[in-house]
Design goal:
mainly alpha
Length: 70
Amino acid sequence: MSIGDYFLKFNSLPVALRKELMDHLEKLLIRMKKDEKPVRKGGVPGLAKGWIVIADHFDEPLEDFKPYMA
C-alpha cells in the first residue's frame, strides 16, 4: 500500500475518526521512542590502557628531513 492510498483512506474518514486515529498514532510514536535503545556515544575511558605504546624517540626529527631543517 502506498502513502497515497493511506492518504486517501485517511481523508475518507469522518473528522472524529481522523482525530481518534491521530491520537492513536501519537501514542504509538511515544511507545516507539521509549523502546528505542540509547545510542552509545564513544567508548569507555581507559579501556585500552597499555595496548598502545609510543616510542621514546617519537618526537625526534626524522633523518629524511634533516636537509630541509638546516
